[in-house]
Structures
1.
Amino acid sequence: MSVARPSVDLPHFAFATGIVVWSAWFCWDAWRTSVDVENMILIVPIAVVAVILYLFVAVSCFRVSSTTRREPLAAGMGIRIACSMALLAAFVVAGPLIGFDVACFLYLLAMMVFLGERRILVLLLAPLLFCVAAIYCFSELLSTPLPLLFSRGEG
Amino acid sequence: MIDFASLASAFHLLGSSWQPWLVVVPGILIGLLVHAVPGLTTSMALAICLPLIPYMDFLQALIFMTAMYAGAVFGVAIPAILLNVPGSASAVGTTFDGFPMARAGKHNEALGLALAASCVGQAVAYVLLLGIARPIAAFAIRLGPPEMLVLALWGLTLIGRMRGRHFARGLLAGAFGLLLGTVGLSARGAQRGTMNVDLLLNGVPIVPAIVGLFAAAELFNLVGREYIVEDLTRRRVQASRIVVGMLDAFRHPGVLVRGSLLGSVIGIIPGGHAIANLLSYSEARRSVKDPEKFGTGDPRGILAAESANASSEGGSMATLLALGIPTGGATAVMLVAFGMHNITGGPSFMRDHTDMVYAVILSSLAQVGVLAVVGFAFTFVAGFVVKVRLRMLVPAVLALAVIGSFALAQNASGPVTLALFAVIGWLMQRFDYPVSAAVIGLLLGRLTEGNLLRTYQMSGGHLDFILTRPIALGMLFLLLASNLMPYLRSASARFATTPVPDGELI
């Protein structure tokens, strides 16, 4: 009878390593600019604690048993989430560049298509109405200087 | 402690004309509406309405602003419950149990609980303020960095309680959050972790980071689903169930009163209102017999967080009225409104215009009743969010959050922070790290560092300095007692249930 051997959780290991590498870099960056107590009074102890905790987490990444294993994502879910993140990133970058009015419309349109909306009228009207209302509230009622392409703003 | 002549004068001020009351409903509605949009804050709403202030008499202006404040204090709970979007730091605790309740189809009850807790919290705080405004102010002025440090440490103990299934991961998330909270310029002007990006000199933009960690990450998980509440039969918006939620709040009077008192006291301290909800949540969780239910949709979690959040408003007003010191952005804007009427807040205002102070407190108590009605109607309408298809809701909320975070930061650092932290938040969820622990660290990082540093400077590096601060010492004792009590209690219970062998003397 074969016994299930503990497997390795590399994605989690990479994530935890990312956290501790950033923590160590941050501590080093703070140390580099000033070694005064005023600068390091909280950062050094917390960074040391983070490294110690990381060691525990890292060990657990190499001892994944059937009870501690993560539930796998549903089929296609990983791609969906990655695409949603990519679209959000594109909106964040495009907003200040081409104006939030156009970027918001395109983002809503793209997300709705991506999430399964197929009715042409809804695809055109919903983002348009939402954008007009949101941009009007922010730029006119709240006088927020938003970068815009088609109306008053910084664009 | 109550000056009854001034109190009678206050009743006369409020009763002699109906004009001051005209602004209550619009004020509450503006406050509620503002916090329905992620990224908008109470101080922003108050600031936008500042141009109206010179056209009102002073009492009317104060009532208008406190009404807006009251609406906003509750309004922030609505997106926190329905969308897991804490529009400000003061609603973080509400998301812990609010959103799980909404996901389980108990959105009506959750909103009712939050509304009732908010009303009770505000009422308790203003009754306290009416009776002991002056002693509260005298107490507030004696609080310094050591006391604030103990308070911050108290907040940090919540990280230990939020650790989730994996102890090391929970604490690592908290440490990560604490370090993130100290990014930016140090007290000596040294740049830390800014990568020479000027936009990070003031630190990581807190609200976009929180919205990213909590909301955006959660919204990614909803991609591919049809509705927030999958079960059609549970997707109803029912006024009767909101009422049930409101009534249910009174089944836990201990949680409500403790949260309200805690919030009132913490609210008087500058910056305290942001952590009142977390401390109250932490204490409520510690004191119950079944703490494992917290975080899974326990009504007591909502009550603890919301009552403290609401009552911290009264505490903030005590400091503003009695000392003329703003404890946050909203009260700072109110102080500007004082200036517009050539009035300076502080001890002289308290002494010379006691009737006006009482009038503001009494009107705020009356506003609680108005908030219950207006808030109920608003909540009923807001509840329809669960009926909107996620294919529309998710992009709309994310788009609003991005635009709101740009408006808040006034530059691209807001949206960039939101997107970055959305990814980090999702990864944390995926690998079973408690996001709330990181958020608490992020919120308290700078507060802890600043007060630790000031305490260190005051003490000259001698720890026994704390012995000369009776309030800090008392708070430290309470902190230790509250954290050790559960262990002592369980140890004594184990001892009591251990079978004693026959013939052994006890």
Note: The first strand of chain B starts at residue 184 and ends at 185.
2.
Amino acid sequence: MVSDPRSDEELLASIQMKDVRALEEFYDRHRVLAYSLALRSLGSTGDAEEVVQESFLNVWRASATYRPERSSPRSWLMSIVHHRAIDKLRGRQSRIQPVAWEEGMDVPDASDVWRDVSDRLTGEDVRHALAQLPPEQRETIELAYFKGYTQSQIAQLMEVPLGTVKGRMRIGLHRLKAALENAQAELALE
Amino acid sequence: VNNPHDDLSDMLGAYVLDALSPEEQATFEEHLQECAACRAEVAELQQVVDILPLAVEPVPPPAALRDRIFAALEAEGVAQPDLQAMPGGAPARSRRPAVRSMLRVREVWFAAAAAVIILGLVAWNVALQTASNQQSAYQRDVVAALASGARVTPMSGTKSAPGASASLVQPHRGAPYLIVEGLPTLPANHLFAVWFLHGSSPDPAGVFNYSGSGAQIVHLPVSSLGYSVSAVTDEARPSGRQPKGPIVLLGKIA
């Protein structure tokens, strides 16, 4: 029997046990996505490489803080890359850590169904779903997520009231979710 | 006039996109402590934000980056176990081998369980493809399902579809899915219909098309819990509440 590739969850469990081979496999699997995200945010290959390096070292050092019920290993890695890239953009040394409201509170787990959906989505699906958003909602989301602008900065940049920016983000994300679910439903029926 | 909750919940999209100032973030997180509705919406939208990286056009990093990362780890001394990673913070050196061998035992068990299922399908399916064919996406998907702790029901092809095989995967939580392979090509206006049976009464559990080659995952909208038999039929569209076409796959739900 051939040996099957380990799942991301298995790799992360091994990384927690300080298995460096598992980190190598995890790197090989996600290096392109991690680097592409950093490069898109930072626009400089040198900065992007630095962020990817810091991020994988962070995965190694902080693997014990990974919470499988909150996100997939890939999402966890991408949030590390994202935050480090944004920190660099904003010129901050460190971020305010989110408060630990997860502990003991009724935070819903990522739904199994949605997790299945997101695992099967391709880059093309996500780009297509983004393209379906009204341009001002898409631009607002991209300025915030990829370029690290705050809502107030975006309001100035786009010359609209702050309330409009807030609405574009929240409504845009809900629409994006619906568009992605539709994309999956169509795939399943095709 | 807006109430304070509305004012705060307006920031929800900006919060998950990380677009709040430190002060706004602190204020919103204080609100989150008290507001279950906002916590639920944050969790919902966070899942969308988590897949935004996929939208980026892929660019591979230079090969030298890999060397630099693992050289940096080497310099740190990768052999140093992280005590934090160990439940209870017990001395890592003594615990590590035990945990490792436990993992190995688990892997072996999953592999063995998968082998049993694959062998079962071979036994029931005289016309199943060659061994090298099965050790592909289909088997990988079955092993992944077993590894996740899901309940896996093998389904075998009937006389109408001797080359077909499938596994019904019911995770602990959420909806089940089928892993199918080797189904016949249907006429253009036909679909495969999934049925769950309790006794002799079938309930519809979704329809799907088969792409024509390889393993395919079919997500089903209803749980298989409480049913005793799973079947797939070939139905002329539109499919009704009762199966009319021939059964192509059949499995007894464990």
Note: Chain A has nine helices and no strands.
3.
Amino acid sequence: MKHIFLTAMMMTAAAVALARDPAREQTLQRAIDLVESKGDMAKAMPLFEDVARSADKALAARALLHLANAQERQGKEQARATYERIVKEFGNQTEAVEQARLRLAALGGAPQTRAIMARLVVPADKEKSSGFDKITADGRFGAGEDWTTGDLIVRDMTTGKITRLLPGSLDAKSWTGRYVAWPVLSPDQKQIVFARYGDPKTPNQGQLWVMPNIPGAKPRLISDNPEYRNLPAQAWSTDGKSVLVTIERVDKSYQLAWISVADGSAKVLKSFDWKHYPDYHARLSPDGRYIAYSAEVREDFTESHINVIASDGSIETVLVKTAGRNDQPVWTPDGSHILFVSNRSGASDLWSIPVHEGKPAGVVSLVKRDIGRIANIGMTRSGSLYYYSKQDGIEYASIAGLSGHSASEKFVGNMPRWSPDGKYIALMRHRPSISDTADLVVHSLDSGEEKTFSHDGLRGSPPRWFPDGQSILVNTGTPDMEKVFYRVDLKSGEFHKLLTVDRLQTAVSSLSPDGKTLYLIGRSDPKTFVFDRVVAHDLTTGRALREFKPAVGISGFALSPDGSTLAIASIMDPQTKEARLSRVAVDGSDFRELYNSVRAVAYKAMFDRIAWTGDGRGILFVESDRNNNFRLMRISAEAGKPEYTGFEAPGIISINPHPDGSRIAYSAAKQVNEIWALDNLQSIWEKPQ
Amino acid sequence: VKSVAMLAFGLALGAEERLGPPPLGLDLLLRAPESNPMQRGKVELGRRLFFDKNLSRDGTLACAGCHDPKLAFSDGRVVARGIHGVDGTRNSPALINRGYGESFFWDGRAATLEAQAIEPILNPKELGLSLEELDQRTGKKASEVTAALAAYVRTIRSGDSPYDRYVAGQADALTDLEKRGMALFRGKARCNNCHSGPTFTDEQFHNTGITWRDGRLFDEGRFTVSGRTRDHGAFKTPSLREVARTAPYMHDGSLARLEDVIDFYSNGALANPYLDSEIRPLHLSAGEKRALLDFLRSLTGEIRQGWQ
């Protein structure tokens, strides 16, 4: 266990940005060597303590983790205090805090702090295959399904051990075969109910099954109604005789209903039409008397309310009905509050509302800001809310050596751009839970400090440095909207409007070396997304200077360092995804094809995957092989065949080589799917003593 | 107004007994306002008032005059007929499953059954009483009368039809032709787009052109309430439960038989500037029309009313 812990810490250490306190960084390495090579804790611990005094908080937190680990090895009680110090004093060092909390839990007790804390339960790399879990009230088990096999599984949330109760026969590629979904363990954990799909006789019909919570036990069919397309189980009744389900019927309506475990008969509490359907997170109150659920209110699905209905259907109240989306309700263990996710602030926040006899009993209050896009799994009696954190396309910007395979630095963001002096990286960082809004972030590679610049409507288009290194060009506007370009003064933080272009021009652009001319690509036909023209704009006047149509369509382009030539990537065949590379002078003359068999990443998706080398003699571009590996290629700007640079990385979106050609900044998208727990929520319902 | 009413809705229960379960196919949840909880005595009072001709000025009509239990609480007339034999302008809607309703009257101008119940009593063309007369004749305040009438109407529930038994899992509850009609109802015939849910109505308002004559709308319908352009000539989707017993059809009773209604929609209803976008020619064959008709007849079930 300790080895694993230490390895994890070392990996963390390798991933962090350049140290701001090089002397103490060396001290830390010396102390680690003392522990690992010589086992000399006595000499190492004062060194760790010294490093912990560093102004570099990341470095200090790492030192404290090592110190606490060393204290643990010596069986010292101080280890707990050191871990608690990390949790208390280093709140912004999330990785260190998580490590500390894990160790505190392993030491046999919850941390002393009562602050609400997020805890990573199942990390992304272990959460690739299983689906929605529902957690038992004691927090020990989660019921779920394996999306690669269709198996019914139960996860021990403490050890991570997965028990397979019922095998599926799912072919995940064709999505055929039998599989389960929406399992729920009974309150006594002796039975498990679940929906099952893929019966060859009724392939479009959902069934409800139950089986003992024993691997290999025989399941029993509860409901096999051809009117039910989908019937996700939500909860067991407190007497264990019925299961709450959200039925999706073949006539496109929905029902919230109890289904008898004995005979499959349904008692429909409430019906919904397809425009106002309930989500699949109906939650039974701890006393079993009420059900909280959310349902769509508007036909455009931009608004949902939280409702509470009596479990016998006798009464219903709209509990939360503010504008925007309110969903994911979950009861606190004492049934006095409901927690829910709302985007009323513009972000996805966790809120709570007191409830009495199924009705609101007070005002809503914020529990945790910006919790992100989550799917709650359930709340334990001890006050921990378990939830899936599901985020598609989280973007990471990385820096790597051009011939290497691994990144030396990594941070959240997209479209990284080196500053002219190579000391900073500008990137666009999407705001959590608001995927179409981004901030400009300037990251210092020397200090690790970041400055954020925000503006309404700022999107994830590439930022472009002006040659003075003191200002950056950014733009607002979505692909099918008018775009406005601004010069951001990095000292004052002010946005100065420079240029407005129509919706037919993209925000994919290149800035001339003197910072005066902006090249954009555009389309002639508003009904298609075929980009066929280059437009040059004078940023000093805001006027278009000239435009021309190259001999090829444009799916990506880049301006040479001397500002004379555009490299163009164009898709030839959307089916084969083959592309060609060309070059053309910025006045539209001297068009030349360089290569015509580039395996493009995706149709129309070469936008920011092409760049010139710093010396202007070569063009870099991203190519994908048959296995969808993304490889960085280089081709001479004059002629010849492309060559593999030796660099590859999954999911590359954007590339930008360092001015000296030694390194490359790139960004890639990654799906994050993790299980988290929010601990110490008792403060919501427990009154202070 | 509707959302406020929706918020307040709920069936408040005291310690006393509850209204029995609905017939098969209906929701357990009824939309009753907290201010008017369902109680046995009140429902019984409402039932008596519903059939009491003293609620009309000339003592010739009761609510049941236009909402006859034998005709699934409709009246079989083209348009409603009030005291002194005066005809109204719209067809009497069947008062079944209105406890699940979201608005009332063909144009939805009443947000609750309580608000709905007073209008026919005071309307000179219907029952024609004044508030003072209502007080004198019943010995109760108007609010008590309407609360009782609304509570009783909420108990009028139709379900347990062959269709309900089929969707509950009894595969032989519908004939093959009825099943074919059900598939048409949900598919090609597009009926389900508006006649949806357990009560076979989306509780929304649609223009079918039925009131379009000589280049204009003879009845503006929902527009007179909402003022919205899209509501010109729009009327509330009626329930299709017991539809075989509630002829004639449409808000003006202008289609005498169900066959006429099916033909009307098969032909794309009646084109007009405000025709609902859901409506288009269906080009149903004779066989398809027959299947659809049989399915609609399978929606005839059991009507429960009163405290049960």
Note: The beta strands of chain B are 157-159, 205-206, 212-213, 216-217, 235-236, 302-304.
4.
Amino acid sequence: MTKRSLFALLAATLAAGPAAAQSPPPPCNALKDASNNPLPPPVYISGSTALEPMLKTIGPQLAAQASGALTIVYLKDGSCSGVNRIFTDGLIKQNMFYIPPGYDPKATPTPPTCTVDATVGVPGDLVLSDVDPSLCPTAPTRPANITDFNGPVNNMVMVVPSTSTQTAISAEMAYLVFGMGTPGGVTPWLDPMFYFIRPNDSGTRAMIAANIGVGNHAWQGVFSANGKNFGSGDVFNNVAAQQTVQPEQTIGILGEDYYDQGNNRASVKALAFRAFKQKRAYWPDSSATARDKQNVRDGHYKIWGYVHMLSVTNAGVPMTANAKAFIDLIQGKTQGSGFDVQDAITDSHLVPLCAMHVTHDIEAGDQKPYSAPAPCDCSFVARATGNATPTGCTACNAGACATGVCRKNFCEAK
Amino acid sequence: MIAVTVALGAAGCGSDNKASGSPDMATGGPGGCFTGTPMTNEDFLNACTSADSVDVTPFYPTNAPNGVLPALQ
């Protein structure tokens, strides 16, 4: 394939967006349902594109709560764009999408949109970032009144078309590929025209950069087309499009939550990753086809991080009630009304903290032991894999366990 | 093309590809994997596991001799 035809393919991919709305989108601060009744109050969120699946999964349930319902109104413009915003004026001045009750991401992958006054903007309630703000290449100094709340765990993957024969990449190889391109000399990834990456405001890119030693250095690869920077969907579409064209030369970067959505694994596949100082390469899951996140949870797969929920705070408490409600829910301090937050996080292809056995101070930093106060390994793996009783787990009911504690119908370690 | 070997179901972590600076761990598992209770980053990365793994060249010899990566320009 020539470079010209590749660009044509990129353009076609980007042009294949959602169909035009039949009626003008409503203002984001006055959302109504089909019966013209007001939707629940908005919680304005911006940042990571990789975390879009989480919002699409939790959003409908949050909006349908009998009490404390909220409407997620979201601008997905990249983790570090969000960080830059909340570290400055905090205003969102672009149109957003929103998640009403009853929204079905499978039936309608693109959520409805709403409008924002581009001059005045709306003050964001919180920012979601895949990485610690200090890893963002252009982030200003964090103001003292911005607090970073840890959410569930996401991990990033380097992906190739499903038809590629490649299975693994080391940190050193990835450094040479994304840091140097052709002169890096890593076969078969020799042509940066076939590296589908994200711009430098991406948390996906920042997390991988930190783990392969590239840091804030510029990357080789294609991260935009027709003046539009790639989001996770664009990377996926471009990598998938190379299945029958140049599968061996092609490589891309994605969040695992995006990679695990729907039937995405049929088109692209994750590479096992060998970190610096590691002896072998591992997939995030216990195998290339598993969905248990075993290697993320036990420290064999290094490219992971917490969902960083950044909010303006007073004495450590979010300034807006809606931000506090969202953060408390995601952190498990409050329970959903009519839905299980742990299950919603799992269904979003993220890992709840209760299933983790390692922690770190910052993405790519040294891992340390972590013991969840109320472990959920078995219920997590059961939900994530669809295996009713995962290997090594014992089902329980009525609270009876020979050892450990019965929680969500499984005997957990404590 | 880098040769890789998939070790399906092997409870180990391989030992034939030590990079410069590899950890000097007290290891007793198959392939030199770490058998104790992991406490450090390198323990976790190299702990014995039933997970599938791939033996991938730790560095690219042409441009990273002895594991030393060239500075990015």
Note: The first helix of chain A runs from residue 3 to 15.
